[in-house]
Amino acid sequence: MAGTTQILQLADRVEPTSHLCFRHGVENRRLCVYVRVRTFSFKGDLVVSQPRLVIPVTAYGVLLVAALQTLVVPVIGDIQAALGVSAAAASWAVTANLLAAAVFTPVLGRLGDLRGRRPVMIGIVILVLAGSILAATTTSLPLLVIGRVLQATSFGLFPLGIGVLREELPAKRLTGAMALVSGMLSVGAGLGITVTGLLMRGEGADYHQLFWLSTGMSILGLIGVLLLPRRPAAATGKLDWTGAAVLGLGLVLLVMPLEQGNTWGWASPATLGSLAGAVVVLALFVLMERRIKQPLVTTRMLRHRPIVIAHVAGLSTGFAMFAIFLSVSALVQAPPSVTGYGFGSSVLAASLVYLLPGSAGGIITAPLGGRLVIRFGAKATLLIAALLTAAGFILLAVVHSTTWEVIVGSVAVNTGVMFGYASLPALVIQNVDRTETGIANSVNSIFRSVGMSLGTAFVVTLVTRNLIPGLPVGLPQESQFRLIFIVGAAVALVTAGVVGFLLPRSRPAAQLTVPEVEEEEAAGAAGVEVPAALVARQKTA
Questions:
Q1: 321 and 334 in contact (C-beta within 8 Å)?
Q2: Would you kindly state where each structural domain of the chain is located, as residue ranges?
Q3: What's the CA dihedral at 66, 69, 71, 72 to 10 degrees?
Q4: Which of the 8 DSSP states describes residue 341?
Q5: Within 13 Å, how many C-alpha atoms sit on residue 72's CB side?
Q6: What's this model's pTM, rounded to 2 decimal places?
Q7: pLDDT band for position 54 (50/70/90)?
């Protein structure tokens, strides 16, 4: 009877798929009753859960993030010509997007934890849609930049999507789903470059077409997030707006010189001053967060070794992803008749032949990475990722005179990137509470974005230095590409060393704690799939 009373007391906490547990008997054994409810009441509204849509909706959202990031990069010259502005001014269509993303991502991730992920995701997609329409209809650079700032909110979809997966999926499916969704970052980036090449070919091509495309993609994304199940917020409390402002300022000071260093000069007072300011402001942010009761980022996330190493790996993975995209694209477009290397490919051919195989292969390699995490753990998968990345860069540094050599090297690096993306969310959520899922993955996303900026700045700097003399158009010596590939391999090998020697060994199926495994097995015996996060929620209820 006591057990029945406990069940009745818990009945108001039943969710679409939930369980009620109680102790009974002289052995005080734990019994759980698993309940499947297809519709449920939440704040007076009738809500229909659509768990089958969770993975495709979150995967599409992440693909949208990556596509929006790379869609504009190849058309900076077209924007410059169409709007009659300088190259430096036109580049703000990219720079403003990255700066805004650095500010928005942690705020949106924490808002999702505090206010619910679904409503925040809906708001994000509406802002992205508004930014796409503005950019598609304006002929003013300031308005285009504002549109790109609005599109930057899309960066919040990745950490929020990981949080949704943790809420909705059974633990046995979570790692594979996170790997697939994370892999869309590379797939979307390659897709963005390829689609740009297709739309901008021929006479009369207009860059506005790209923003009309992003408008259509945003509408589809909005329909998708509206179908996500509603859930109460994972955490309670207030957003640390002061901390968010200080963190945003520090990230702007960090990302700005990485994007503008080639224009300002890497040894200029503006570049060095911004980097020094970033160090000071970010150090101030850490001190502030240690002194307040409800920090934006807890001290555990700032000093816990697995989380710190996850951020280092995210930085390295982002660096490798953009370094391979930009360097291979520049290499294969070089005319061999005057440079002695390259293939004289068009932008479209470079995208379709050399970049797309590695990106599209993510549809296969991302789930494979998830299986590796399930079977061997996040540490082993990260180590494999770093070594694969290094192997691909080394191959390209040694040989890149035939098409197959470049494709194989590029695919190897991209596979390493995919495996890295597959393991990072698992490593992060294994080491944070479910109430911090959004902000923890947001911080990891920031490190990945900074790595992308570093990769971009590094490649652009090298391909604009040590040029072949006597050519009307500046083209780099072949040695510059070898240096890019050697440095890419070195970064990956350093990451492998950090992961191999400093990261504690992680268990297979890393997202589960021992109690969750026991309850997951009990649910399986009952024929019911239970979202992993519900176990933690029931314990804290």
A1: no
A2: 2-46+520-540, 47-239+296-502
A3: 180
A4: S
A5: 29
A6: 0.80
A7: very high
